[in-house]
Every structure is written in C-alpha cells, then in structure tokens.
Amino acid sequence: MDKSQKIIGISLVTISIITWIFSIDQPDMMHAMMTLNPLAVTIFTISWTVGMAAMMFPAIIPMVLLYNRFSKSKTDDDNNNNVSSNRKLNQDVDKPETKEDGQRHKYSYLLVSRRVIKTSGFVGTYLLVWSLTGVMLLLFWSVLMNNLFVGYNTNDFAVVSGILLVISGFYQFSSLKKKCLAYCESPLAFFMKRWKGNKLIDGLKMGLYHGMYCLGCCWPYFLLMIALGWMNILWMGLFAVIIFVEKIWSKGIWLARGVGVMFILIGLLTITGMISVVTEGNEMASSDNDITSMTSMDMNNTVQDSEIKDMKHNMDMNMK
User: Fold this and answer.
1) What count of Cα atoms within 13 Å lies in the side-chain half-sphere of residue 89?
2) Which residues contact 229 (CB under 8 A, 6 or more apart)?
C-alpha cells in the first residue's frame, strides 16, 4: 500500500473505533418512532449514521482501497506524462534537476490530496445511502405503530415480529441476496461493472451504487434492529461480525444462509409463543396501545351510560 492507501485504511479503522464508542449509549429510538418529534428524529438519524459507520466501515475497506488504487493508476499516468514533459523541457533549457524535483513533489502531493478527496466522496455517498435507509425504516415503522398496530397487544406484536423474522430468513436464500453479496465480496467485479471514470462526480455515483448493493445484501439485519428494537451495542456487534464475514469470506453466502435458517426458526418459535423477541421498548409501546384502547372503551361506555340515563329521565318525565 502507498501513503494515501495507508492513510485511508487507518482513517476508516479509527472512525469505526470512535463510532463504536459513541454507539455504546443509544438514544431512545421508541420515542422518535412513536412521536416523530423533529428533534428526536434528528438525534436518531445522527445516532443511526454513527452506528452504520461503526458496523460497515471495517467491511468496506477492501472496496475503498481498490477504488483508491484505480484512481491512482489514472492519476499516475497523468503524472508520468507531465514529469516526462517537464524533464524534456528542463534538458532543453538546462534547468537544474532540483527545481524539477520540487515541481514533481508538489504535483505528487496535489494528486494524493485529490485521491483522498475522491475516496472520501465515495465513502460519503455510501454512508448517505445507509443514513436515508435508517430514516425511511423509522418513518415506515412509525406509521405502522401509530396506525395499523394501534390496539395490538404484546402477543399480537410478537406474531408480527415472528413474521418479520421468517421473511428476513427466507430473503437470505434469494437470488437478489446472492447477487448483491457477490459484488460486495468481489470489489474487482463491482468496479468492472460500475466504473464510471476518475472524476469526483464519478466516485460519488459509484459510492451510491456500492451503497445500494450493500443495502440489498444486508437490509434484513437493519429492519430487525428497528422493528424489534434491537438497536443496542450487543446486536450491533453481532450483526457487524456477520456482515464482515459475509463480505470478506469467499463463501460468505453460506454464513448468510445459516443466519437465514436461524431467523426462520426463531420466527416460528416467536409466532407460536414459545419464545419472545419483543424488547422492553416495544412492550411499552404495545402497553400504551392497550391503555389507549381501554381508555377509549371506557369513554364509550361512559357515553353510553349517560345516554341511557338521559333516555330514562325523558321517559319518566313523559309518564308524569
């Protein structure tokens, strides 16, 4: 690895470590989900993005370094052409070599800086995909919790959780999962298909493409993190290890399918009520729904009792 690749690799690892430290204390996701308060949603988005950096950066290091190498090969060609031209010019006018060396070092530093900027853009748009995904999952699940699932009790919510686990498990065997994982496992195959050019805008586009492939590969894990309230350090660590092995190991699809079998089994056990995967936050949300429904029923009964008393009073008055 050259200097820029070492800087990028160390930076990704350092950012991942720092974001893991910040991810230890997670904000109240259920509050953001149930209220959609702008401040709560903003805090969730920041926390989610930090968590994505912690979980995903180690797994994308090979992809990022290969992109940096491809950028280097193009800029090195330009650099060699410029150096050759400068050297020929210096020989013609008898300029000292030291001045040429200074120009070459200055130009090389500029090229390295440009490569770092383009690589940072590639990583930034990749992370943007995951940030938007977190917000969309939060909003989608919030609509369900505040509308469709109103009145559901804890047992009903457990059945829904089991169904989500079964769906996530079967997806691990799908052709889309296999295709997306293949591009994540093989950075060279990805760039052979999606290489757009060596400009900054091209790197941004390729970062989006990589983010979409990664989303197609890993979305079940993050759906479960939000839907089941598993956005805590233990589940994040477990899923991060699974994602890392899936992407780094050439036979990562077998791990994915093994996880799929576990999801299906746990989902079936949850549906039958043999185990519970409902977290404390979701239990509180379900309890709140129950209380709301009971309050509504009590109010209806009160209204009905009042109407009956009025009818009796009117009948007594008429009889008199």
Assistant:
1) 9
2) 29, 30, 278, 279, 280, 281, 282
Give counts: helices (H), strands (E), the chain: 11, 0
Q: Which structural domain, as residue segments, surrounds residue 198?
A: 3-319
* CA–CA distance, 34 with 138 (Å, rounded to integer): 10
Structural domain count, the chain: 1
Q: In a 10 Å sphere around its CB, with 0-12 CB exposed, 13-18 middle and 19+ buried, how is residue 187 labelled?
A: buried
Our measurement of the distance from residue 300's CA atom to the centroid of its chain's CA atoms, rounded to an integer in Å, reads 44
Euclidean distance between the first and the last CA atom of the chain, given in angstroms as a whole number: 102
pLDDT in tens, 154-212: 777 788 889 999 999 999 999 999 999 999 989 999 999 888 888 889 999 999 999 99
Residue at 69: amino acid letter: R
Cα separation values, 206 from 96, 189, 196, Å: 43, 13, 7
- pTM reported for the whole predicted model: 0.76
Dist CA 179 CA 135 (whole Å): 25
